[in-house]
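Allow me, if you will, to draw on your knowledge of protein folds for a short while. The matter concerns a single protein, recorded as an amino acid sequence and a row of backbone structure tokens. Kindly check, if you would, that the fold set down in the tokens agrees with what the sequence suggests. You will find the record immediately after this paragraph.
***
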Amino acid sequence: MMKLIVFFVVSSLLFSTQFSNGEELESPAEAPAIHKTGGEGSLRPEECPKACEIRCSATSHKKPCLFYCNKCCSKCLCVPSGTYGHKEECPCYDNWRTKEGGPKCP
């Protein structure tokens, strides 16, 4: 009889914690941010500086790289992975051009 009571109490606790966690996540303010991996809109504006630090880490022209990367990221909300190339991951970033037709985003 004691085993049945213990089983019932443990089951009740597990059941109640499962639903209490589910209710907490239903609130949009408390739900974790879910982003697509890469692509336009995959970053929030406050995430751009960190992504651009990584993108511009291997260049010898760090200041202009960071300036244009942050400008492009604030418009496109994405930064391609790595320090060079992979611009196909972010079409907006890839298609933004200078007046001369060169790439605007590093």
